[in-house]
Design goal:
The chain is built from 13 helices and 13 strands. The protein has 349 residues and is α/β, with parallel strands linked by helices.
Length: 349
């Protein structure tokens, strides 16, 4: 009989769906979605989660939780009580604090307490990058000079195992027959005042005004009440299906990820796999992900951004496009994540 795994997640994103598919290949997976549409529903969801766990934990062998937060505390406590292992997959917001843009679990109580206690009591942590553990932050001066959960909780001794996100190399690839224009693209979902700054859309649109001869594309849903003011060379598409995305990425030369904070960068590796040349901010491990295949904005500075873009426009486009694709093939395939994730869980079940 298959071992039984409980999987708890906040929303069914593409990478959550992938992890569930990976787990289903070897385990019997029971899922619980902790999707908070309104803050006042948090207590109700915690109660529903508790009922779910009381029912299934005694019959399960392992609990895996996507991200730390309110929803991760009860599972790790019950895992200890029933003497089974638990893991928290760390993604970004659960490991940082950016008060200047009201971002990060660790910027306020009681969310900070629930997050850090969860990370202490879990059997193992699975960060997508070393930057989620601790790293020096130099991109701007308005927030902490270091980020990562160990910076905010130095006494946390929970073992961690870094497992990078991956991308389907068959699905995300340069699409034959699609003409690649010398244009720019960025992807950001749930755009509002905070995410507009967090994902660097402010700098991206500034670049569009400075380089009016090039097209700039934004893909991402805007939340109610928020609107993007675009110029004639900027196109905003609210929604593109995952199946349509590779062709659109293949039609653009440069992918921009100018975020103030980034736990990993799934959209970035998808774009690189399609042959887009990356332009990234120096946050998290974005500069490591791109290697020698793209360009890095060292600080949140408009004049520096202009120089980076000018350098990119003069680069050997074909060579860098091929290098970007190869970088993902070598380091960030979904097969590599599958092997590492299943290997870790099998060692703990």
């Amino acid at each position: 009989m298959k071992k039984k795994v409980i999987f708890i997640y906040p929303n069914l994103s593409s990478f959550v769906r992938k992890d569930i598919e990976i787990l289903n290949t070897q385990f019997e997976v029971r899922v619980f979605e902790f999707a908070v549409s309104h803050k006042w529903l948090t207590l109700w969801l915690l109660f529903k989660e508790l009922v779910f766990l009381i029912r299934f934990v005694p019959k399960s062998n392992f609990i895996i939780i996507q991200f730390g937060g309110y929803h991760s505390f009860i599972p790790v406590i019950l895992a200890k009580l029933f003497n089974i292992s638990s893991a928290i997959v760390l993604g970004g917001t659960d490991c940082v604090s950016f008060p200047s843009i009201n971002y990060g679990n660790l910027r306020k109580y009681p969310l900070k307490w629930f997050t850090l206690k969860s990370l202490r009591y879990a059997t193992v942590l699975i960060p997508a990058s070393k930057a989620l553990v601790e790293y020096s932050y130099t991109y701007q001066n308005h927030d902490y000079s270091k980020q990562g959960y160990k910076y905010f909780d130095p006494k946390n001794n929970t073992p961690y195992n870094i497992i990078s996100n991956g991308v389907s190399l068959q699905k995300f690839r340069p699409i034959a027959g699609v003409t690649r224009k010398k244009s720019f693209i960025t992807v950001c979902t749930n755009l509002d005042n905070r995410n507009y700054r967090l994902k660097g859309i402010d700098l991206y649109l500034k670049a569009a005004t400075i380089f009016p001869e090039y097209d700039f594309l934004i893909i991402g849903k805007t939340l109610p009440g928020f609107k993007i003011e675009v110029t004639s060379n900027v196109k905003h598409i609210e929604f593109v299906s995952n199946d349509e995305l590779p062709a659109i990425l293949s039609s653009c030369t440069y992918y921009c990820q100018l975020s103030l904070s980034e736990g990993f960068g799934v959209a970035l590796i998808e774009a690189m796999a399609c042959g887009c040349i990356p332009l990234v901010s120096k946050v998290g491990i974005l500069d490591y992900i791109i290697g020698e295949s793209g360009f890095v904005l060292e600080r949140h500075d408009e004049s520096l951004m202009i120089k980076v873009i000018e350098k990119a426009l003069k680069s050997d486009v074909q060579a860098l496009s091929a290098a970007a694709r190869q970088r993902i093939v070598d380091e960030y395939s979904d097969e590599r994540r599958r092997v590492e994730l299943l290997g870790l869980i099998n060692s703990l079940v």
